[in-house]
Amino acid sequence: MTPLNHSIKGKQRKPIEILLIEDNLGDNRLTMEIFKEAEVPNNIHTVTNGVDALEFLNQEKKFQDATRPDLIILDLNLPKKDGREVLADIKKDPKLKCIPVIVLTTSQSKKDIKSTYEHHANAYITKPIDLNHFIKVIKSIEKYWLSTVQLPS
């Protein structure tokens, strides 16, 4: 996918590339819909397991033409390779470690929270069960990480 340039206050701006690593297809669809309405241009790419996530990030196999993400949203409970392992692999790779990773998961475990921050996650958010609250959480991620924070290029 070729990023489009968008004009923002006279400047050309390419969309923010987001990698959503989530195995729940309903959560994927809803997250993509919310980001589609964002004020900041973005492209969201999805993978549903940890093996595909690392192949996407390393541009391997079917992801050879994958775009390097500016931001990663990561679920912990993934098939094939757990999100905890994916996070550890991302943060120990010199080419990937500066990409911000937001953990968005159902786990409320203090052990998971501590471990993800020890592996240098940039944020840990417990995924709400309530639909309206889930929408608010995704919009807050969009507002903060796409509009407020300066992401590495």
Could you explain the architecture of this structure?
This protein has 153 residues and is of the alpha/beta class. The chain has one domain (14-144): Response regulator (Rossmann fold). Helix content is 37%, strand content 20%. The chain contains 5 helices and 7 strands; from the N terminus they run E-E-E-H-E-H-E-H-E-H-E-H. The protein has helices spanning 25-36, 50-57, 83-92, 110-118, 131-148; strands at residues 6-8, 11-13, 16-21, 42-47, 71-74, 101-105, 123-126. The strands form 2 sheets. It has a 5-stranded parallel beta sheet with strand order 4-3-5-6-7, sandwiched between helices. Strands 1-2 form a two-stranded antiparallel sheet. Strand 1 (6-8) and strand 2 form a beta hairpin. Helix 1 (25-36) crosses helix 5. The longest helix is centred in the last third of the chain and has 18 residues, at 131-148. The chain is globular and about 35 Å long. The relative contact order is 0.16. Mean pLDDT is 88; it is low at 1-12.
